[in-house]
Structures are given as structure tokens and as C-alpha cells.
Amino acid sequence: MMTLSASKIATRLALVACVGLSLSACSRLTPWASSNRPVFDGQYFRAKVAFEKESPAAFTVTVRDAGKSLAGAREAGRLEATTHCIAYFGDSRIEWGASNPDAEEGALLFQDGSLVMSGTCRGW
């Protein structure tokens, strides 16, 4: 029968407690830990991809309330578009139109306060 000394038991308990505490903090490292919605430039954005059912490669992404943060709205649109292309074509490559996440501010298209960007998925 094996017995552990009090110091070995205390050391093991401390180690288990440290591991438990460090793992419980992992969820706080993600920018959207309190929600499933990602945060862009400190803001939440609603983004939606529209496309024709027969031709999902060509799409338009609309990001609402772009005035909260233009940089954040651009990235929210990029994520929504990338997610769409991966879901339909298994690839994240996009050929963007004139209004795109990397365009100069003057080239961006806005409609009722929403940022509107378009592109085509380039899968396979």
C-alpha cells in the first residue's frame, strides 16, 4: 500500500488548482467570449450575404450600422463573405467588386447606413 506525504498531497492539489484556473480563463481570451457574435473594432455588426440560389458564387454582403466603425464593418463583411464561400465552395478565395473591404473609402457603397460590398467566390 502506497501512502503520500502531506507535502506531496498539497503539491498535487495546488497543481490541479492551477491547471483548473488557467483553463477556466481560456474562454475570456476570445473577443466574443460573452456571446457567439464576433466583435470588430469593439463593435457588434449584423452582416448578411444575399445570393441567387442557382448561382451562389456571386454574392452581395450588407453590414448594418457601418457608421459605428467603418474598419469594423469592413471586417464583419469580409468574415460573412468568407464564411459563405467556404460553406458553398470549400474555399475562402474571393474576387471582390469595386466596393470591397480593401477599397478606398470613396469607392465604398452605402445604403441607408449599411455598407454594401459584392464579390464572387473563387472555389476550386
In short, what is this structure?
With 124 residues, the chain is of the alpha+beta class.
Spell out the blueprint of helices and strands.
Layout: H1 6-24, E1 47-52, E2 55-63, H2 70-89, E3 94-96, E4 109-111, E5 114-121
Antiparallel strand pairs: 1-2, 2-5, 3-5, 4-5
Explain what the structure shows.
The chain has 124 residues and is an alpha+beta fold. The chain has 2 helices and 5 strands; from the N terminus they run αββαβββ. Strands 1, 2, 3, 4 and 5 form a 5-stranded antiparallel β-sheet that branches. A hairpin with a 2-residue loop joins β1 (47-52) and β2. The longest helix has 20 residues, at 70-89. It starts with 5 loop residues before the first helix and ends with a strand. The mean pLDDT is 84.
Helix content: 25-40%
Number of helices: 2
Spatial shape? elongated
Number of strands: 5
Broad structural category: alpha+beta
Low-confidence stretches: none
Radius of gyration over all CA atoms, rounded: 23 Å
- Return the string of H and E elements: HEEHEEE
Q: For the report, how would you describe the main beta sheet?
A: 5 strands, antiparallel
